[in-house]
Amino acid sequence: MTETGRGVMVRRRLLTGDTIIAIPESLLITTSTVLRSYLGPVIHDFLPCRLSPTETLVIFLLCERNKGCSSFWKPYVDILPSSYTDILHWTSKEMDLLPKFTKRRACDLRLKAEESFNRLCNGFLPLLVRQMPQFNGAFTWDLFKWAWSSVNTRCVYMSQPQNSVLSPDEEDKSALAPFLDLLNHTVDVEVNARFDDSSKSYKITTLTACKPYDQVFINYGPHSNEKLLLEYGFTLPCNPHNNISLTLSQSLPVP
């Protein structure tokens, strides 16, 4: 795609109310998927310590990448980006270009990932490698950053029942949705995105018509360019949801 690189083009006209895509529940990667997999017993053995939902998805993605051709999810893993542009992958010099308030937020996001990696290296990962030695070497910092960004930039919102073996400190609300995550964001369209209980699929319905052979977009929500840059690694020109963050010292007294 000229504007976005990756993307999805439609071959026929989409009208308001048409379904753009529907992904069956069996092809969504959620914490339930992970807990039903070979990792489930290891996660139970880790109790009373608990993984966060994000950590659970990140570890599963790294294990599936490591499995290579034996992984059911290999076709999906193979089309994930090999690199990302969110702040987890910025250099210190690039971070220094950010405004002070934005840089503080960026540092907080990076610290969250770094603390998660260190916590896993000192707890869950040694347990996993003892039980499944084939995963030794699958959890370097660079690979962890790749998986962390894959989860945090590409997941859809899909609330899950809270599971007692996972940390209650983070809401379990994310799912990796193969192919669906190729759809790009714009503020110029409206969509209805949700898990449809009747069809047991994650479905996106467009509320904006689309011409044949145009790129079809979705809308992540009313996000400012700061949020898009820090969490997704891109910005939008003429973003109507843009804002400027001010500190109290920068605010003016009301007359």
TrEMBL record:
Please give the coiled-coil regions recorded for this protein: none
From the UniProt record, which GO molecular function terms apply? Answer: protein-lysine N-methyltransferase activity
Where do the SET domain residues begin and end?
A: 1-221
| Family annotation (CDD domains) | SET_SETD4
Q: What SUPFAM superfamilies does its record include?
A: SET domain
InterPro entries registered for this protein in UniProt: SET_dom (IPR001214), SET_dom_sf (IPR046341), SETD3_SETD6_MTase (IPR050600), SETD4_SET (IPR044429)
Q: Which domain of life is it from?
A: Eukaryota
Q: What is this protein called?
A: SET domain-containing protein
Organism of derivation: Capitella teleta
